[in-house]
Specification:
Helices cover about 60% and strands about 5% of the residues. It has about 110 residues and is mainly α. α2 packs across α6 and α5 packs across α6. The protein binds heme C (HEC). The site of heme C has 21 residues, from α2, α5, β2 and α6.
Length: about 110
């Protein structure tokens, strides 16, 4: 095998890792589940307080596009009075956020 081929293989391997989003589930558990719950149902103390929508419900999932979800995760969310309900997450790359959006879509039952 030539060096050239090895480089191409390496590029594929790292792209596969990114696309797989190995960290999305971890990010969800660490940063999202305290409000949304591990299954996205929002059956948590915080979720109840914020009367959070059930992300496992197809109707909820239909209410936002991937772009809107991305923006919510990147910039946070405020209610009508401007109060922050979901904080913008620090330290997530755009790729992490894209992976989280994909993860959120898997919560739909
Ligand atoms: C402090 C509580 C809290 C945390 C932590 C939180 N959220 Fe949310 N999230 C909310 C609230 C409140 C809403 C908006 C109310 C609703 O529709 O349920 C929301 C809405 C959403 C939506 C719907 C987006 C839209 O545009 O309607 C998505 C997707 C979402 N959150 C994903 C996440 C992800 C991914 C994380 C972790 C990175 C996260 N949330 C962390 C409280 C939280």
């Amino acid at each position: 095998m030539t060096t050239h081929h090895r480089l191409i293989l390496l590029a594929f391997a790292s792209a596969a890792i990114t696309a797989y989003g190995a960290d999305a589930a971890t990010n969800w558990t660490d940063s999202c589940a305290k409000c949304h719950g591990p299954d996205g149902k929002g059956d948590t103390k915080m979720g109840k307080k914020l009367s959070i929508a059930d992300l496992s419900d197809a109707k909820t999932q239909a209410k936002f596009t991937d772009e809107e979800a991305f923006k919510s995760i990147k910039s946070g969310r405020t209610d009508e009075s401007g109060k922050t309900t979901m904080k913008a997450l620090e330290g997530l790359s755009d790729a992490d956020i894209t992976a989280l959006v994909a993860y959120v879509r898997t919560l739909k039952k």
